[in-house]
Design a protein that fits this description.
Elements: E1 2-4, H1 10-15, E2 20-27, E3 39-46, E4 52-56, H2 67-73, E5 78-81, E6 95-96, H3 97-105, H4 113-125, H5 138-155, H6 162-181, E7 183-184, H7 187-194, E8 202-203, E9 206-208, E10 217-220, E11 223-224, H8 255-264, H9 273-286
Parallel strand pairs: 1-4, 2-5, 5-6
Antiparallel strand pairs: 2-3, 3-4, 7-8, 9-10, 10-11
Helix pairs in contact: 3-6
């Protein structure tokens, strides 16, 4: 059964959000970073009762609930959130749905294009308007959320090892801190490089940890920040946030190889590890 939150029933609905639940927040504006955004609605699914809940904060088709009030009255529980970073400004304990699926299957949740195209349609049709997701019919939002729910349930694995715990409690939350810190830019250089005018001198990026290599990518405003060219001056768009400050880069020689050595109890000799291993490879080949 689907329950729609109203000002009259929100307290009673909040009491039902115990046990294991899946939460899917919907932003008001898909073209804006989540830090500079707001949540228009939340879809919640109960694994125990199979009931569904829709809570509206700015959505035209739902009663408007005060989001701070809502997060202040919900009970504790085992909460799994799709795009958990959207809740990072609230005191809300949860785990990230995509991270859970990625850790155990090496895949992130792939949303059906037919379910998600409604966002592209509205953004294309009303390209000059902010917070356009607020006016998308709630039944289309419900279809989108159900698609995510079904795909999550299909691949859901109960976490049972320390490796996953590290990714959830340390890795993901440290990426969140970096995203919230923002990146200071040289406004003139940024405009020349990207063709976009930014107000305030700070951009916010998003890390994607769900890559084939496990190395997170990082992008902002459609720019891949991990692959800024070393020779064309594009890296100069990023500056220190302090007057007279500097940016310092640390590069650890053969860091991943040394980590592997520590994990298996092997101590590499001083010096360049790649050079050392190269000597071992060629020594081995000569023997044949």
């Amino acid at each position: 059964m689907v329950f729609y939150a109203t000002r009259e029933n929100i307290v009673e609905i909040s009491r039902q959000l115990v046990g294991k639940t899946l939460w899917i927040p919907i932003l008001s504006d898909n073209s804006a970073h989540y830090i500079q955004n707001r949540i228009t609605a939340i879809y919640i699914y109960s694994f125990e009762t199979e009931d569904e809940y829709l809570i509206g904060f700015h959505a035209n088709d739902l009663d408007t609930i005060n989001i701070e009030y809502f997060f202040g009255i919900i009970p504790t529980g085992h909460r799994i959130v799709y795009n958990a970073k959207y809740f990072s400004v609230f005191d809300f304990e949860c785990v990230d749905a995509d991270l859970l699926i990625w850790y155990y299957t090496s895949n992130s949740i792939s949303v059906d294009q037919n379910a998600s195209k409604i966002f592209n349609i509205y953004r294309g049709r009303y390209s000059g308007m902010n917070n356009i997701n607020d006016v998308i019919p709630i039944m289309r939002i419900l279809d989108y959320c159900r698609d995510i729910r079904n795909r999550f349930i299909e691949h859901y694995v109960v976490p049972d090892d320390d490796g996953y715990l590290f990714y959830e409690t340390i890795y993901r939350k440290n990426l969140l801190k970096l995203e919230h810190s923002g990146i200071h830019i040289d406004l003139k250089r940024f405009r020349e490089f990207s063709g976009k005018a930014i107000v305030g001198g700070t951009i916010y990026s998003e890390y994607n940890p769900y890559t084939a290599t496990g190395r997170p990518s990082n992008s902002s405003c459609g720019i891949n920040l991990n692959s800024l060219n070393k020779t064309d001056g594009s890296r100069k768009i990023i500056v220190s946030g302090f007057d007279g400050g500097r940016l310092v880069e640390y590069d650890y020689d053969s860091y991943h190889l040394r980590l592997i050595g520590n994990m298996i109890g092997y101590q590499f000799p001083p010096g360049n590890v790649h050079e050392f291993l190269g000597k071992q490879y060629f020594k081995f080949l000569k023997a044949f």
